[in-house]
Amino acid sequence: MSALFFKRFLQRPFQIASIIPSSKALVNRVAAKMDFSQPRVVAEYGPGDGVHSREIVRRMSPDSQLLLFELDPAFSSDLERQFADDPRVHVINGDAAQLTEELTRHGIDRCDYILSGIPFSILEIKKKRALLQKTYDVLTPGGKFIIYQVTNELRQHATLFDRAESEYFLQNIPPMFVTVFHKANSRNGHAHAAMPPSRLHANHSA
Ligand SMILES: C[S@@+](CC[C@H](N)C(=O)[O-])C[C@H]1O[C@@H](n2cnc3c(N)ncnc32)[C@H](O)[C@@H]1O
């Protein structure tokens, strides 16, 4: 797994942005921010070799869905191979910006959680704002957008979210800011009281 990661980094250093995958400690920390006690729809931007995806799949219920958006074709093929026998997982070899179209294509109207490992800081400002807006729009009320990044610069751009909390997580090389952006349960309500499950309409046709 790490060999593929390093190889892809050498091919596309700015897009991959890291020479090794997230640590097991970071994976567990991030997964613990999601509640899998009911069916969930989760989207992941930049799964890479799938280190977070595998933990999400392990925790999520049989009627949950996971959409993986990975730009890199070699990582995407490897993810297809890893999850070939799991109909809950949809691998999209494409940009996270295709989120809305891909949800429609899969007959899914909302995500409960969106996890991002993409290097947001190198995205051009217009693309960054557009992706943040899409992310916010497709989240179910009470949903969470979770990111792990070397810098915490996204916080200043993600002001459309209703609340954010960050921690600096040292048990990873390099250490990462883990930030959870909350979408409120109602426009004037507080973020994240009891989170309703999103409605699952996956038609499994894709
Ligand atoms: C730092 S790696 C993170 C990999 C993995 N999630 C981990 O924690 O080890 C970033 C990943 O995001 C992917 N990526 C970068 N920009 C992307 C985009 N706009 N849409 C989808 N994937 C993207 C890269 O190809 C790479 O696999």
List the helices and strands and how they pair.
Layout: H1 2-11, H2 13-16, H3 24-31, E1 41-45, H4 51-59, E2 65-69, H5 73-82, E3 89-92, H6 99-105, E4 111-116, H7 125-138, E5 139-149, E6 163-169, E7 176-182
Parallel strand pairs: 1-2, 1-4, 2-3, 4-5
Antiparallel strand pairs: 5-7, 6-7
Helix pairs in contact: 3-4
The chain binds S-adenosylmethionine.
Describe the structure.
This protein is an alpha/beta fold and 206 residues long. It has one domain: Vaccinia Virus protein VP39 (Rossmann fold, 3-Layer(aba) Sandwich). The protein is built from 7 helices and 7 strands. The protein has helices at 2-11, 13-16, 24-31, 51-59, 73-82, 99-105, 125-138; strands at 41-45, 65-69, 89-92, 111-116, 139-149, 163-169, 176-182. A 7-stranded mixed beta sheet has the order 3-2-1-4-5-7-6, sandwiched between helices. Strand 1, helix 4 (51-59) and strand 2 (65-69) form a beta-alpha-beta unit. Helix 3 crosses helix 4. The radius of gyration is 16 Å and the shape is globular. The model is unreliable at 191-206 (pLDDT under 50). Bound molecules: S-adenosylmethionine. Residues 15-18, 21-22, 45-48, 51-52, 69-72, 75, 95-96, 117-118 line the site of S-adenosylmethionine.
Number of domains: 1
Strand content of the residues, in percent?
A: 15-25%
CATH architecture call: 3-Layer(aba) Sandwich
CATH fold name, please? Rossmann fold
CATH class: Alpha Beta
The gross shape turns out to be globular
Secondary structural class:
alpha/beta
How many runs of DSSP E, i.e. beta strands? 7
- Sequence stretches where pLDDT stays below 50 over 5 or more residues: 191-206
Overall radius of gyration: 16 Å
CATH superfamily: Vaccinia Virus protein VP39
User: In sequence order, what are the helices and strands, one letter per element?
Assistant: HHHEHEHEHEHEEE
Report the biggest beta sheet as strand number plus sense, adding barrel if it closes.
7 strands, mixed
Query: What order do the strands of the largest sheet run in, or round the barrel if closed?
Result: 3-2-1-4-5-7-6
The end-to-end span amounts to 27 Å
- Helix count equals 7
What ligands does this structure carry?
S-adenosylmethionine
